[in-house]
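INTERNAL TRANSFER SHEET
From: sequence group
To: structure group
Subject: Acyl-CoA dehydrogenase family protein

Please process the attached sequence and return the structure record in the designated field. Keep the field labels unchanged so the import script can parse them.
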Amino acid sequence: MAQNKGWGGRFVIEDMAPQDIVTPEDFTDEQVMIGEAARAFLEGEVRPRDAEIEALNYELTVKLLRKAGELGLLGADVPEAYGGLGLDKVSSTLLAETLAEASSFALSVGAHVGIGTLPIVFFGTPAQKAKYLPDLAAGTKIAAYCLTEPSSGSDALGAKTTARLNAEGTHYVLNGSKLYITNSGFADMFIVYAKVNGDHFTAFIVERGLPGFSIGPEEHKMGIKGSSTCPIFFDDTPVPAENVLGEVGKGHVIAFNILNIGRFKLAAGCVGGAKEAVALAAKYANGRKQFGRPIASFPLIGAKLADMNIAAFVTESMVYRTAGWIDEMLRASEAAGGDADGAGARAAKAISEYALECSINKVFATEALDFVADEAVQIHGGYGYVKEYKVERIYRDSRINRIFEGTNEINRMLIPGTLMKKALKGELPLLRKARALQAELLQPMPLPAFDEPLAKETYRIGQAKRTFLAVGGLAVQKFGLALEQQQETLCLLADMMIQTFAMESAALRTRKMLLRADPAAAARTRNAVEMTAVFVQEAMERVESHAKTALAALETGDALQTQLAVLKKLMRAPLGDTIALKRSIAARVVKSQQYTL
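Return from structure group:
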């Protein structure tokens, strides 16, 4: 893969070559084997015990976590020096995707290996890493992450839990509580955030069993019922001073960096969930007969299966594109060298370059899975509302994802906000590009020839970028720094960015397949071309709608009409027959009875 410039958000102002991204078609033999190992564990150990896990059997969940640790499935992100595998992010992403079918158990694994373990990987001292990471990688100790409080959710820095250093300087005494803590019923150690002296937001490693540390009752949840979710309480709990994670007062650095990875890993899990839902719906549609034939033969059911498959394809393309970028940044960070003890912090900083893309992945993937799950239930009809069918559980389980790791509303606010911060710091020539575009928009825009496969889609993605810059430029001109208070406009800009990144990810992946010109993959490539064509056309309709809504809030009268005329020029392109394309896509899904590329 060609080296990228390491600036998150660059996709809105530059076009990229297909060679600049990683796709599932690029998996190495080793990565395929890792995915197969996870699949074997899922089929052999987890799926047969599914009902017991869903009944919240702590003992079984811990036993299976230990087994996963023995197989190396918990140590992908832990350095080899501390008992892990030290795998690349594409490999760990594939693990997260594959294990997603384990439902509640996948959440237990994800909380442990991600937000539970990574704070120590990235920010732990050598002593902390040596003490905790081997056990976490092996599954002999289970981790939990404690940020949310009864009075602070999205406003994480508003935490009320306090920590005060004792007179001897040996321990910090914690008081307060945390809410909705995954794995809390059986975890051995907890990453806990508290304010030292009520002011300095700080992270601590807290071990189970300390005096004054107690676990509340299990929450009765809508979904993910097989995962443990309890409140925890601190009543003068003494935590050794050497268990401060990072620096006193710098807990926000840990929290925000870990959220980046948490959001990305959540998106990876949504890929696996969407693929499973497609397979369940396709198999049911083939087996269920109405009016004398399988319902899969009816065009409206086929259109649903096509839309579901497209959503999974686009999400998968986004997730592995981002994983490849993160890997590249990590390699650059390692090549730069430096103190070995600071490697984790440098890795977190490298990953933070793509904080914006992590939020984009999180929002798109969680909403795509919700859509796919909903359609899967609809295809099942009344049976989809019955617990005997897994789509009922997928539907319930998927809903929490839009709340986890920062609500989708918060992430939407972060996306354009992060972009603007990069621009103001000189990391991205966003404002210069927006100003240059204003003159360009006044010129005629004749349509180019669309002779090559995906030429039209590539052109339209470029127009989406111009549309975002035009609308975003107007918003900055009108509101200046006060734009951050215009939440509706920020949300519209975020949605335009999300749709653009999604379109481009799918198109680049498909163009890379076309460049390979592999005869053995001709059918897959044709399917990718058709799915990309459908998605781009429909996504551009969403971009146009978002732009119109934003322009109406930014301009009035003749100025608005001028801007709408420019938008009309930007949106011009020949329409494709999406009905015919979806019938073609659906036929492949129905035949394969699974997610199909």
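Handover comment: The radius of gyration is 24 Å. Residues 252-409 form a domain with the Butyryl-CoA Dehydrogenase, subunit A; domain 3 fold (CATH 1.20.140.10).
Transfer complete.
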